Amino acid sequence: xxxxxxxxxxxxxxxxxxxxxxxxxxxxxxxxxxxxxxxxxxxxxxxxxxxxxxxxxxxxxxxxxxxxxxxxxxxxxxxxxxxxxxxxxxxxxxxxxxxxxxxxxxxxxxxxxxxxxxxxxxxxxxxxxxxxxxx
Amino acid sequence: xxxxxxxxxxxxxxxxxxxxxxxxxxxxxxxxxxxxxxxxxxxxxxxxxxxxxxxxxxxxxxxxxxxxxxxxxxxxxxxxxxxxxxxxxxxxxxxxxxxxxxxxxxxxxxxxxxxxxxxxxxxxxxxxxxxxxxxxxxxxxxxxxxxxxxxxxxxxxxxxxxxxxxxxxxxxxxxxxxxxxxxxxxxxxxxxxxxxxxxxxxxxxxxxxxxxxxxxxxxxxxxxxxxxxxxxxxxxxxxxxxxxxxxxxxxxxxxxxxxxxxxxxxxxxxxxxxxxxxxxxxxxxxxxxxxxxxxxxxxxxxxxxxxxxxxxxxxxxxxxxxxxxxxxxxxxxxxxxxxxxxxxxxxxxxxxxxxxxxxxxxxxxxxxxxxxxxxxxxxxxxxxxxxxxxxxxxxxx
Lengths: 135, 397
What we know:
Chain A is of the alpha+beta class. Chain A has helices at about 30-35, 50-60, 95-115, 120-135; strands spanning about 5, 10, 15, 20, 40, 85, 90. Chain A has one domain (about 5-135). Chain A is built from four helices and seven strands; from the N terminus they run ββββαβαββαα. The relative contact order of chain B is 0.13. Chain B has a single domain (about 5-10, about 15-300, about 350-395), classed as TIM Barrel, CATH 3.20.20.70. The interface between A and B is large, with 60 and 71 residues.
């Protein structure tokens, strides 16, 4: 499932809004769980300090300077506080909720890291030898 | 002769959202880097060929999707006039839209001037510079054809470029004989003002098992620096780690982050030949990777259907980290094993070491209440951008 978020694009010398596709994450269920604990805000009201700063830069810059390539490309995001995107909205999380959220990821990922496979050098050497014989 | 637009079955092209196009406008280069995967032959793209490549881009991007168009070489700034003409060609197309088309140029850092800077600013073209690190590291592989060192001029230009474009990506390649100095390389680039640091292994080098065993220690040392930068309020984007932090939090690579060589990614050589990736252009003489030529009616004569985008190694298929690993990178696999789908032991070790270092950063940040939610749902660059804006504001005041 694709979740379409109306996150901001920031483009110098102006701020514009536009759709930014947030793809379904593997952690989707967990995001929902934590989003519902958080404070819902709409993306249109998510004008952050950074965005205000950028608008200020653009407003104050003389015309010839407004093109300073501070941000050569569009980028999504801009909220420095812990948050998750869910179903087109942004949910601000309390610090402890973010800690719990990342804690769950850490717990889950630790097992994956421990059970990872290896491609070892000997196997590739043998493969290479077989290939040489075939050639 | 037919036309690419009408005669070629191109159903395999992934038009889903984002096309990545590389225009290798010249294979001339003023450096002779030992590890370069492009064989320089002095050829330069004709404007008529560029026209056809640009038509290809607009045809397949359509009216709502996006494209990254990257000028590449050789050294593309050696052909600055051509680069300007092609940029004008792209931007004057009725379908051009700055919100959907991002243009960039990859340079070796030996050529930079106020004229180039003004052009980049005016046309919103992003600059990327290659620099392996401090003098001894840079000059080991990146030198002029007569053997002269390139470090002094590259360092000078890098400082100038970063002062104007603070988010310029700087790419450092590391090899078996210098990867131990990667933490110093990161410090050096950060010291020059680099905030957007890419670390890329020399994929065709002869990496030994002993090298691979050292990788976790080296990547962890970079991780410590990453945390220190954060703690000091001057975060740096370090591709090796930030990319992995994002995929760990997200639960794996998103489809558009994976290699789409020959499907969503195409590279044009100066001759008009089309390759699945810029790392496979070689001498631009056609060959096994070539998909066709834009100057032919058939254009793309061969689909990349044989490029699956997933690793053939048995270990990869059952590995618990397969969704977090770049085992799908066809050109890396090709240069290190000779097959698009076979992952090398070194890349396996490197990916695992990078994932491990990124995981340790997440653990540390979480324990210390530092928020990495941008990596989850926004851009890992966000924290760097914020600091950049603050500094810019402070300078204005």
